[in-house]
From TrEMBL:
GO terms for biological process: methylation. Gene3D superfamilies: 2.40.50.1070, Nucleic acid-binding proteins (2.40.50.140), Vaccinia Virus protein VP39 (3.40.50.150). Belongs to the class I-like SAM-binding methyltransferase superfamily. RNA M5U methyltransferase family. This is 23S rRNA (Uracil(1939)-C(5))-methyltransferase RlmD. GO terms for molecular function: methyltransferase activity. Keywords: Methyltransferase, S-adenosyl-L-methionine, Transferase. The lineage of its organism: Bacteria, Bacillati, Cyanobacteriota, Cyanophyceae, Oscillatoriophycideae. InterPro entries: MeTrfase_TrmA_AS (IPR030390), NA-bd_OB-fold (IPR012340), SAM-dependent_MTases_sf (IPR029063), TRAM_dom (IPR002792), U5_MeTrfase_fam (IPR010280). The keyword Methyltransferase applies. It comes from the Bacteria. The keyword Transferase applies.
Length: 449
């Protein structure tokens, strides 16, 4: 019988889907963050429940062969990355297994194969950064990521998973903002102004946008500072101000104002030119997203006469490449700024067989009379709404492509789509959009029986 506060020695046998090492004492399962399969460790038990316990790593007795020295100096504090201590090859194996295990456990699927995971570089991959602001003990402005499981900010002057061209901007812009003396927004009191410092970079063009999120309009000379940044950093093409008065964890508010340069950057993606903004959705890992979307298009074996509906289409990052290969595509997305950009992106690429509709997928899709040959789903983490799944059951397209960043909701929705034996899983392709973290992207192709 184990007790809270006890020190135990334990072998780590597995890694859970939320990224913690898993070991056992008798038959009790113990989860220990910052460990990996093959470690023998000493841990302090900090929570003991009937079915499981949580431990804190105290000492590594024998390190696993998969254990490496983190490439980030704040890896043990920052909650941004959970797997800096695991070698990249093993991270990929864990993710592939996670997809297989989740589709089996939650989806009840038995007869399917998970293909090799798509991956590229394990550092410097993120094209977007959003750092919350805070105030350090000596009163200086800080910006960074939250400490794991808290809202305490770990101050950062660089981050190894960001595109390295963004690193020089972080410390200098923080310094400039500190000199402007703008009060930092306090989540508890809801007072103050500065909320987030955000960057977006076009990986293939190098163009950068700087966006400052504030709680309310202020006259702290940001408008005078913006052109200075534009001049100082040749790759910066725009500085914008986003207002977010809401007391929630959502980073961006609805209103964005241009301070200098332009509201958008240009990016080359999948052989096309895209315009995107800091606050509109764009896959954070440009290179691996390109590879996954190419895989989807190849796997569909398109003949050129297909009608496609792309639900949750964003700025058209998959809609437009696919439009070049089929008869027509309709993209549906609830963010009206994203749809404005999607329409603009269609025009600048001379693509005229697409139609973009602003609206909620669960409202617009059930009302459509068009019968598509292929429906693409790429919802946020919470997965598709029941109305979308129900309408797919009625429309019965020949193929459904489901691109997901959350294996559990993917498995739940695929189970619903396949429960009447209408569809069968044809292919499953995981992709590592988020190295050093526990997250995994997956594309699944379902074919009608
Ligand atoms: C994971 S992103 C995918 C975007 C796009 N397929 C891409 O790869 O760039 C999900 C998108 O769904 C949109 N979205 C979220 N909930 C929605 C809903 N209920 N109806 C329509 N769009 C929604 C978000 O604004 C976001 O652009």
């Amino acid at each position: 019988m184990i007790r809270q506060g006890e020190l135990v020695e334990i072998d780590i046998e597995d890694v859970s889907s939320d990224g913690n090492g898993v070991g056992k004492i008798d038959s009790q399962v113990i989860f220990i963050p910052h460990t990996v399969t093959g470690d023998r460790i000493q841990a302090k038990l900090i929570k003991v429940k009937k079915k499981y316990a949580q431990g804190r790593l105290e000492k590594i007795i024998n390190p696993s062969n998969h254990r490496i020295r983190p490439r980030c100096i704040v890896a043990d504090k920052c909650g941004g990355c959970k797997w800096q201590h695991i070698d990249y090859q093993h991270q990929l194996e864990i993710k592939k297994n996670q997809v297989k295990e989740t589709l089996t456990r939650i989806g009840d699927f038995t007869n399917f194969e998970v293909e090799d995971i798509l991956a590229d570089t394990d550092l410097g991959y993120r094209n977007k950064a959003s750092y919350p602001f805070g105030v350090s003990q000596n009163g200086n402005l800080k910006a960074g990521y939250y400490r794991e499981g808290s809202h305490q900010i770990v101050n950062l002057n660089q981050c190894p998973i960001q595109d390295e061209r963004l690193n020089p901007l972080l410390a200098e812009i923080k310094q400039d903002l500190q000199e402007l003396g703008i009060p930092v927004y306090d989540e508890n009191t809801k007072k103050g102004i500065l909320r987030h410092l955000c960057f977006r970079i076009g990986k293939n063009t190098g163009e950068i946008l700087i966006t400052i999120v504030i709680s309310k309009p202020s006259n702290f000379k940001l408008a005078e500072q913006a052109p200075i940044w534009l001049e100082r950093y040749p790759n910066v093409v725009g500085v914008t101000l986003n207002y977010n008065p809401k007391p929630t964890n959502v980073i961006f508010g609805e209103e964005t104002e241009l301070l200098a340069g332009r509201l958008y950057l240009k990016e080359e993606f999948a052989g096309l030119t895209f315009t995107l903004r800091t606050e509109t959705f764009f896959q954070v890992n440009t290179t691996v997203a390109e590879s996954l979307f190419k895989w989807v298009i190849d796997a569909l074996n398109l003949q050129g006469n297909e009608t496609v509906i792309d639900l949750y289409c964003g700025i058209g990052a998959l809609t437009l490449p696919i439009a070049q290969k089929v008869d027509s595509v309709m993209g549906i997305e609830f963010d009206k700024v994203a749809i404005e950009l999607a329409n603009h992106n269609a025009v600048i690429n001379d693509i005229d067989n697409v139609r973009f509709v602003v609206g909620k997928a669960e409202v617009v899709f059930p009302e459509l009379t068009t019968i598509a040959d292929i429906v693409i789903l790429d919802p946020p983490r919470k997965g598709c709404q029941p109305e979308v799944i129900e309408s797919l059951g009625k429309m019965k397209p020949q193929k459904i492509v489901y691109v997901s960043c959350h294996p559990a909701t993917l498995a739940r929705d695929l189970k619903l789509l396949c429960e009447n034996n209408d569809y069968v899983i044809e292919r499953v392709k995981p992709a590592d959009f988020f190295p050093q973290t526990t997250h995994v992207e997956t594309a699944v192709i379902l074919t009608r029986r």
